[in-house]
Amino acid sequence: AQSVSQHNHHVILSEAASLELGCNYSYGGTVNLFWYVQYPGQHLQLLLKYFSGDPLVKGIKGFEAEFIKSKFSFNLRKPSVQWSDTAEYFCAVNPYSGGYQKVTFGTGTKLQVIP
Amino acid sequence: NAGVMQNPRHLVRRRGQEARLRCSPMKGHSHVYWYRQLPEEGLKFMVYLQKENIIDESGMPKERFSAEFPKEGPSILRIQQVVRGDSAAYFCASSPSGEGNTEAFFGQGTRLTVV
Fold first, then answer.
1. Which residues of B touch A101 (CB under 8 A)?
2. What is the C-alpha to C-alpha distance for residues A104 and B1, in angstroms, rounded to an integer?
3. pLDDT value at residue A98
């Protein structure tokens, strides 16, 4: 069975600091990869996704992620965080051949940005 | 352009009562997924439905839980005889297809508290 690991459960940064959230998965085949964000009291929103092609993916709000196949990783980055980025971030993995019901989520990383 | 609508947002039930959670998918979406998020854990897949059909219920507990997506009306996740361990956030997502390269859109969730 596939699994997803998010190494940091809680991250605290000052505004303008750079962000990198780790995500590793275990699955031997081709995968689709997602990062979702959940602002307090709101639904999950898709930040970015990787299906194929360029492994460096640009998402909304200045976020990007890099798929490194050899490391089974899909880390999320942002050069300069803002207070409004305070939220919980979830990495998710889906086997390429599966429908969305096969998506596995990580346990999430809570990001707190201090003004 | 309404997104995925879940109601109620918060639901309190006493042990032994029934809980009914509703999910109206986005317009044009005929695929619905239910997830459960226990405290300090990631989202866990429960069930995948299309109109009038359960496609995959591999994540559903064997007893007390059921789901439906009738031809008309919202999808319903039903929990009979709730117990304290059922307290969680329940998220619904919808997508336009069940293909592998599919993105699903999430509702705001229903937070169930069993007292």
1. 33, 45, 48, 55-56, 98
2. 28
3. 62
